[in-house]
């Protein structure tokens, strides 16, 4: 009994003709034939000797073609690289450095201000809930929150016209002056 791999080579010309009829693109047709031969070679154990090798190869090629078409529908063509040029990712170390600065400044605040910033800013409790938890009036919570944010901004040398680029949304909520629930 001969190795079925030897028979694959006999069908390459007809595979290319079929691929060319599907794609109408010689380069793409060659790529598909190569993918088909590679898949057939890798999965030769699934081929049943005595059956039609040509039909098996054509099925692999056809399935490859339709899989590529489905994949192409989800992809965005960018032959000039315009979209790729717009992609950028900010280095992770910037966020870590800002978080280190935030922690250092936050630890310098008085306990009452840190507590209110955590309750209202980071945890999202309302002024009323924070007042109940701390056993103080709502006005006291608002005052501590305002002073805490001002002190934190001063310690971090933040200005109103600068954007804050922290990686943690909770940390940003602690600093944001409009992040508190009324």
Weakly predicted, low-confidence segments:
none
Ends: how far apart?
A: 83 Å
> Helix/strand-derived class?
mainly alpha
User: How much of the residues is beta strand, in percent?
Assistant: under 5%
Strand runs, count? 0
Give the helix tally: 10
Radius of gyration: 32 Å
- The helix content, as a percent range, equals 55-70%
Write the layout of secondary structure elements.
Elements: H1 4-8, H2 12-23, H3 26-42, H4 53-74, H5 82-86, H6 92-107, H7 111-122, H8 127-134, H9 138-155, H10 169-175
Helix pairs in contact: 2-3, 2-4, 3-4, 7-9, 7-10, 8-9
Characterization of the model:
This protein is mainly α and 182 residues long. It has ten helices and no strands. Helix 2 packs parallel to helix 4 and helix 8 packs across helix 9. The termini are far apart. 20% of the residues are buried.
Using brief descriptors, characterize the structure shown.
mainly alpha, 182 residues, 67% helix, rod-shaped, 10 helices
Provide a short characterization of the protein structure:
The protein has ten helices and no strands. The protein is mainly alpha-helical and 182 residues long.
């Amino acid at each position: 009994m001969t190795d079925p791999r030897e028979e694959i080579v006999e069908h390459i010309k007809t595979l290319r003709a079929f691929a060319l009829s599907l794609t109408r693109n010689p380069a793409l047709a060659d790529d598909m034939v190569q993918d088909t031969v590679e898949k057939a070679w890798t999965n030769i154990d699934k081929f049943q000797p005595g059956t039609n090798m040509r039909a098996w190869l054509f099925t692999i090629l056809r399935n490859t073609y339709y899989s590529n078409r489905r994949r192409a529908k989800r992809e965005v063509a960018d032959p000039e690289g315009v979209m790729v040029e717009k992609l950028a990712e900010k280095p992770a170390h910037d966020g870590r450095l800002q978080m280190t600065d935030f922690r250092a400044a936050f630890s310098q605040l008085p306990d009452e201000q840190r507590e209110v910033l955590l309750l209202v800013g980071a945890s999202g409790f309302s002024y009323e809930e924070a007042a109940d938890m701390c056993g103080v009036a709502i006005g006291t919570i608002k005052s501590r929150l305002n002073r805490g944010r001002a002190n934190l901004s001063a310690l971090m040398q933040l200005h109103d016209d600068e954007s804050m680029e922290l990686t943690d949304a909770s940390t940003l909520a602690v600093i944001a002056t409009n992040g508190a629930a009324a």
